[in-house]
Automatic annotation (TrEMBL):
Residues 143-309 form the Integrase catalytic domain. It comes from Littorina saxatilis. This is Integrase catalytic domain-containing protein. GO terms for biological process: DNA integration. GO terms for molecular function: nucleic acid binding. It comes from the Eukaryota.
Length: 397
């Protein structure tokens, strides 16, 4: 509470210096009143023209919200926020991105808000105790990794283990990190051991949900990957997958950094929630990683994987949360979402899909290891040794 007061005071100080962008509550409602009093036919002053070009009033139930002028009413509203509300809004984005840095927060905020300033985000970040602790634990800065561009077909997945034996949580001692190289999408699982059989079982779980890569690699060594692939073959004989080495020395550094990032977000989650039960926290770290903007691919891993922005229950609607909850009773009658027209066609018995649910969800056909390449399987296996040098897949930019 003390922090919020200090933060708001700082924003007011800034507002005194420059009147641009920041909106005290009073001014916010003043603009709404001015806009409402405008007569459509009457002659307008230049100030009124300016207001009309910049703002629009959105009726949310019995609340009026100031939003950025839209080109069509179908555009999602981008909200203006008052100085008084800024702290809460930044805090939500900060937690959602796993105590994300300035740029990650800005990316998250600009989807929904029009006037949250870079300076305000920096100021907030400097107030966060958890983040200060994080900076204290010195980190080595690595080289910038450029995404590897090629239009070849081999997809890669990487599986690594993070040692958490010193912080055992119930039966769990290890974190398994699975990352799809193309989209940077990560899946995190708590493990009780580093046995290949346990890792393989988790991977089958993941592969049957999001598809399996052609090449599996690991920083834990090629022997480790070989054992896992052998276990995978036991559980899922049809799955043909080969092991590869991280080909570029830099890409190894990038995985190391990703793993230390996961540790940091997890420790921040444990501090925020005052718990040592990190196996539960892993789910939220996974979520935060996948929804946050990734510089290497120019979008969030979630967007890269699913082709749409992520939804988080009511908070992804444009309504203020308290209002959603008030309306709770009425939500049952809200129409269901539907896919774009070309994907299904209606019949008397209801919609008929022309595509698999997987294709509808991910926008691409599922991959199942080597069998999704155009090569005959025997050949792939014969070539086993050479796969490590197959170029990485890249996203269409
Ligand atoms: Zn923080």
């Amino acid at each position: 509470m003390e922090l919020e007061k200090k933060f708001t005071e700082e924003l007011y100080k800034r507002y005194q210096q420059t009147q641009r962008c920041l909106l005290p509550k009073e001014k916010y409602f003043g603009i709404i009143d001015e806009l409402k009093q405008l007569q459509p036919q009457a002659k307008k002053t230049s100030r009124q023209y300016k207001l009309l070009a910049r703002y629009e009033v959105l009726q949310c139930g019995h609340m009026e919200k100031l939003i950025k002028k839209r080109t069509t009413p179908e555009d999602s509203p981008i909200f203006f926020v008052t100085i008084e509300d800024t702290f809460d809004i930044i805090k939500t984005a900060h937690i959602a991105t796993g105590h994300g840095g300035r740029d990650r927060m800005l990316k998250e905020l600009e989807k929904k808000f029009a006037n949250v300033l870079r300076e305000s985000v920096e100021l907030f970040k400097s107030f966060c105790k958890v983040c200060q602790e994080k900076t204290k634990r010195k980190r080595t800065k690595g080289v910038v990794v450029r995404p590897i561009l090629s239009h070849e077909f081999a997809s890669r997945g990487q599986v690594d283990l993070i040692d958490f034996q010193s912080m055992q949580d119930g039966q769990y001692r290890w974190i398994m990190v699975y990352q799809d190289h193309l989209t940077k999408f990560v899946v995190l699982r708590p493990l009780s051991s580093k046995r290949a059989s346990e890792v393989a079982l988790q991977l089958v779980d993941i592969f049957t949900l999001i598809g399996a890569p052609v090449i599996l690699q690991s920083d834990n060594g090629s022997e480790f990957t070989a054992f896992i692939i052998r276990e995978l073959r036991e559980i899922w004989p049809e799955l043909k997958i080969v092991h590869g080495k991280p080909r570029h020395p830099q890409s190894q550094g990038s995985v190391e950094r990703a793993n230390s990032d996961i540790k940091d977000i997890l420790i921040a989650w444990m501090t925020d929630n005052q718990t040592t039960g990190w196996s539960l926290g892993l789910r939220f770290v996974q979520f935060a990683k996948n929804r946050s903007h990734s510089a290497g691919i120019g979008r969030s891993p979630y967007l890269a994987m699913f082709g749409v922005e992520l939804r988080v229950g009511l908070s992804s609607t444009s309504l203020p949360t308290w209002q959603c909850l008030e309306w709770s009773q009425e939500w049952a009658s809200v129409p269901h979402l539907s896919l774009p027209g070309n994907v299904w066609s209606g019949t008397k018995s209801g919609p008929q899909f022309h595509i698999s649910p997987y294709l509808a969800m991910f926008g691409v056909e599922p991959r199942v290891g080597l069998s999704s390449t155009s090569l005959p399987t025997w050949q792939c296996l014969e070539w086993n040794q050479e796969w490590a040098s197959v170029p990485h897949l890249c996203l269409w930019i």
